[in-house]
Amino acid sequence: MIVGGLVMGWFLLTSGFSFLINSSVFVGNLFGGGRSEYDFGTAPKFYNIEFDEVPAATNSASLQVSGIAENLDEITIYVNGSRSKKIKVDSEGKFSTVLSNYDQGTNTFYAIGRNDKTKQNKKTEIISFLYKTAKPTIEISEPSDGSRTPRDEIKVSGKTDPEEDMTVRVQGALTTVDASGNFQSFVRLKEGENKIKITVTDAAGNTEEKEITVHYEK
After folding, report:
1. Stated pTM of the model
2. pLDDT tens by residue, 113-134
3. E-strand spans in the chain?
């Protein structure tokens, strides 16, 4: 009798829980136009666009742009506020195109994606990049070209453009550059003639070189 009572109690409990679930769904459908929180197939779509990494600076007249678009069919890209490219999103949500006809200096672009069925749009944040083709400058303050020294080690110092991410190498060795573009390095000399090469590269990839000759005489 005890076992039978437990089984009956369990049946009433589960039946009552099922009744409550069905009743809540019915009320939701009644006041929600046939939709409920359990109708996962009609949940609102999430729209998003993510660009792959874009270089902060370039010296190329064309820029490869790619990324992922979620629940969007086409992407329109605007460069410096003007419409540049309209491209289709593939079946995997990927897109890719090449931007061109931008200006020397700082440029910006953004994208607007569109879903053909829902007519929903999604706009990205504005992305900026520098386009520069001019080579950086190099000024060598010491030593002077063709100079002679009795020391086997000398200081090479100079100045370049005060830009961010400027790289200076003296005889291939990376040298620190301050915010004003000043740099210095120490170079070991061999007896006789020494050719010292200074190479400067900016963030866009433009490079300039200068070579000086120093004679070490004991």
Report:
1. 0.72
2. 999 999 999 999 999 999 999 9
3. 48-51, 57-58, 62-70, 74-79, 82-88, 94-100, 105-114, 121-123, 127-131, 138-142, 147-149, 153-160, 167-170, 173-175, 182-188, 192-201, 207-216
